[in-house]
Amino acid sequence: MRLALEEITRKEGRNTWLYNTSLELAPGAVTVLLGATQAGKTSLMRIMAGLDRPSSGRVLVDDKDVTGMPVRQRNVAMVYQQFINYPSMTVAQNIASPLRLRGERNTQERVRQLAQRLHIDMFLDRLPEELSGGQQQRVALARALAKNAPLMLLDEPLVNLDYKLREELREELGQVFASGDSTIVYATTEPTEALLLGGYTAVVDKGKVLQYGPALDVFQHPQTLKVARAYSDPPMNFFTAPRVSGGVQLPRSGLLPLTMDDSLGAPGKVTVGLRAVSLRLQRREGDISLDGRVLLGEISGSDTFLHLRTEIGDLVAQLPGVHNLEIGGQLPLYFSPAACFVFDDAGDLILAPRTGA
After folding, report:
1. Residue 322: which of 294, 292, 300 has the closest Cα?
2. Which of 165, 181, 195, 334 can pair with 134 through a Cys bridge, CB separation 3.0 to 4.6 Å?
3. Domain boundary, last residue among 200, 223, 246
4. Cα 154 versus chain centre, distance
């Protein structure tokens, strides 16, 4: 299925939810809509589904204009933040409901296969109220998959689950989506989720699609500062510095050597971005060193998030392992110039790190 939005806008009274948005989804793949709350993700999905009509623009499905066609006339499956199941039906009956609506016979085997894929086959005879929140969401997902719709929309389906269940379902969903041939649209606020699901990512901000492409390409080459901020968890570290011959001038550490295309950007100050994982405590050949003062250390799972004050500003370093460092203590911090992003004064990317730096 080929779904395309052409110059879509969505307005309600004085509020504008979507600004002149064009987006053509990769058919048969997963597209993640990544953006903060109220960025416009749900507005985009509702227009894709036919729940809302755009204020202007067109919605095309396989080159056919379906703008304004109501959702009941479209073959679309949707899963919401709040899992919705039929309370008086068993799990098996919930999953089978779209199959029966299509008039399919011998649905038991299909129901059993879907339930096994989502690890709820042992609950088929139970009612939804007898299940945990995570199990109920799996039922809603299985029912949506049973519909076998060419377009499947998932609006932050894991947001109301606890951390452990989210991690569990994230990994499973990637495998489930890969085994089907539907075009999947998945909305999330979490960059990690977008990377785990793979496929394609559309970064959405304040009613605009800022960038769309293969997930890893967008992550490694954010076209603007806004995209870099949205597609980084923990948030990317940024600092401004003068652009000079051969790189960027740091306040006390001297030259940060960077090879930039002279035709890109203007002379003056640039913004340098460093992901938290690019900062480390051990020096490697060619590294730049910074003196840091420890402000805070947060242990999360197998990583430590270290907050430091340095000559270029406050930074966060994501360090593997558990580190107990004295608050207020001084220590050196290192990073490779090859790990730097550079943006010009308009916020456009002029240099991206080498892959693997």
Report:
1. 300
2. 165
3. 223
4. 13
